[in-house]
Write a structure and sequence with these properties.
By secondary structure, the chain is an alpha/beta fold. It has 11 helices and 6 strands. The chain folds into 2 domains: about 5-45 and about 120-245, HAD superfamily/HAD-like (Rossmann fold); about 45-110. About 45% of the residues lie in helices and about 10% in strands. A 6-stranded parallel beta sheet has the order 3-2-1-4-5-6, with helices on both faces. α2 packs across α5 (about 90-110) and α4 packs across α5 (about 90-110).
Length: about 250
């Protein structure tokens, strides 16, 4: 059976992936943790605009550029950040404002995500990885109210050992806690056996902060290759559709 390092070289040649100049031999991966928006579900730019609009409706003015650096983070944490940055009312009142904005955002986004399609090739890749013997999980900056209906609509729950959302942990990305929670749910003990895959710098930072052996960026979402290359990573692929070529079938 080929090692992941050998598969990396083949994948780089075949699908145009990039990887660090000094590759290291990686142990066998058991668990692949996939981001959701921009990685397995299309990102059409709805989230930043919906956040900006919900904030503005409650008197908190932010620009698209200010929101863009938070791509991949917990959406409630993003709201709280901008409210605390601009609002000087007492803590209890600020928290009520955070909740009101977040509920507004969630209601709008829930409607939008009733029709957002998967990334082209994502379902085939997910199915192939499961057939090849890998455990799968997802992590996302969305909460369960947004996330679970997406998976139910697509019939994807059966593929995943864990679907971890931002409201399952104390801190979202770049904190590593969602990845650790996915490991716990999948009963994988070692970070050396885990790969994280995502389309934003925060996705890669979370994988690095978790100490994972494999941290993979994909170009199907919001980030250009030069942006992802600035972050520590082991691979950059065109999309999640290229993952089966990177990971050998388990013997």
């Amino acid at each position: 059976m080929k090692t992941l390092a050998a598969a990396t070289l083949q994948s780089t040649a075949e699908v145009g992936a990039t990887s660090p100049k000094h590759s290291r031999n990686l142990p066998a991966i058991r668990l692949v943790v996939l981001d959701v928006g921009g990685t397995i579900i299309e990102d059409r730019g709805d989230v930043p605009e919906t956040l900006r609009s919900a904030l503005a409706n409650h008197g908190v003015k932010v620009t698209p550029a200010e929101i863009s650096v938070w791509r991949g983070a917990s959406k409630r944490e993003i709201v709280r950040h901008f409210v605390e940055q601009q609002n000087t009312t007492p803590g209890a009142d600020r928290e009520k404002l955070v909740t009101a904005i977040y509920q507004d955002f969630n209601a709008r986004l829930g409607e939008i995500y009733r029709t957002v399609p998967p990334i082209v090739g994502a379902e085939d890749a997910i199915r192939k990885l499961r057939e090849s013997g890998y455990l799968l999980a997802t992590t996302t900056g969305f909460d369960r109210e947004i996330t679970l209906p997406i998976f139910h609509r697509l019939g994807w729950e059966k593929y995943f050992a864990a679907i971890v959302c931002s409201d399952d942990v104390a801190l979202g990305r770049p904190a590593p806690f969602m990845l650790f929670h996915a490991m716990e749910s999948a009963r994988v003990n070692s970070v050396a056996e885990v790969m994280a895959v995502g389309d934003t710098p925060l996705d890669l930072q979370a994988g690095t902060n978790a100490g994972l052996s494999a941290v993979v960026g994909v170009l199907s979402g919001v980030s250009r290759v030069e942006v992802l290359q600035r972050e520590p990573h082991t691979h950059i692929l065109p999309s999640v559709a290229n993952l089966p070529a990177l990971l050998p079938a388990k013997g």
